[in-house]
């Protein structure tokens, strides 16, 4: 069952999507001037087949919803697959976190896989996007995570704050924003736990100009894409970003940046042989 804080997060998520929709988006005709953006609560309630008072309480975090009812609300709000999964997890319908696997044991199990890609930067993240393990290519490209304080050793923090990453990664903002959106899409109840609260406080302190990122309620999958990086002294390198979940812990995530061409492989190989640098 969801906690009050998570219920409020679910309500804020549903409200944000309701306000983004227009009557025409759901087959309705706008007949009167509207004082608020998007759909009215009564319109979403009607489309979902629930009572107005109950839907109002749902947005206020005062009631919980069954899977069936939440699916109906999601259809009314035109949520995509990532949005529906996020709403389900916020309501408490999520994959259980394995209880027989500690982060250390998971890192030990996955680290040999990461090391099998000597020219492809790769990292293992937990459900909070904290870095659990990484390979030499990751360190060569982005800097050693071991130089970052443990409470900030997190992909979202690195994307928002690390100056070296931002200087090496071309068009860093779209990828960084997608990282935040994917975190919200997959984290579910992790949004309300102490580690997430601590992480957001670190971001607020270290990157206050980007607070609109973690205050946003949009979600999205972290999609495969081409990434252009230009580390010092080796020239531009094109990488393909892909991701997958370890079978031992579906809430964890492996990110893999694969060189696209032989030239890119050669440049990444050269980079891994250079002296290591510290993360800024």
TrEMBL record:
Occurrences of domain HTH cro/C1-type (ranges): 13-84
SMART domains: HTH_XRE
Pfam families: HTH_31, MLTR_LBD
GO molecular function, one term: DNA binding
Keyword tags: DNA-binding
Name of the featured protein: Putative DNA-binding protein
Organism in which the protein naturally occurs: Kitasatospora cheerisanensis KCTC 2395
Organism taxonomic ancestry: Bacteria, Bacillati, Actinomycetota, Actinomycetes, Kitasatosporales
